[in-house]
Amino acid sequence: MNSIRDQQGSAAFPTLVAVLLLMVGLGTMVYMARIPMVLSEVQAAAAYGARAGTQQATRPQARETAEQIARAHLEERGVPCVGPQYTVTPEGNGTLESGQTVRVTITCTVYTDDIAWVSLPTGQQISASFGAPVDRFRGNEP
């Protein structure tokens, strides 16, 4: 007959296994959420940049403003986006006219090695693009 004394500590091992599985599960969720979180912020930065660009009078001003706003958004939010490249269209000089679209595309690499417990493939390139039309009723005509 087993006494209670023989069964002491029998719950320690299953509890340890459950805690370890919980920690691995939570770590996996944090790891898997990094890419979508960064992609969401990059998409928002592209949208803010494109909208800001449409408020400018000339194409060079639109490109400069759009890139500044997109860059500022990523820096302000602390987005771990390495080596961002900004492409802003329309190209050329001259005024922005009604019906044109200012498009901002941001491409960068996201690393997850700072949150991974094991050595996993860490660099993933993401890209986001957003286009905003130039409003024909804007108030800052050249």
Features:
142 residues; alpha+beta; 2 helices; 43% helix; rod-shaped
Summary, kept brief:
With 142 residues, this protein is an alpha+beta fold. It has helices at 12-53, 59-77, and strands spanning 81-89, 101-111, 123-133.
Structure description:
The protein has 142 residues and is α+β, with helices and mostly antiparallel strands. It has one domain (11-133). Helices cover 43% and strands 22% of the residues. It contains two helices and three strands; from the N terminus they run ααβββ. The chain has helices at 12-53, 59-77; strands at residues 81-89, 101-111, 123-133. Strands 1-2-3 form a three-stranded antiparallel sheet, with helices on one face. It is rod-shaped and about 90 Å long. The mean pLDDT is 83.
The quaternary organization reads as: single chain
Strand content: 15-25%
What is the terminal-to-terminal distance? 96 Å
- Write the element-wise H/E pattern from the N-terminal end onward: HHEEE
Largest sheet: 3 strands, antiparallel
- Quickly count the domains: 1
Overall 3D form: rod-shaped
Write the layout of secondary structure elements.
Elements: H1 12-53, H2 59-77, E1 81-89, E2 101-111, E3 123-133
Antiparallel strand pairs: 1-2, 2-3
Helix pairs in contact: 1-2
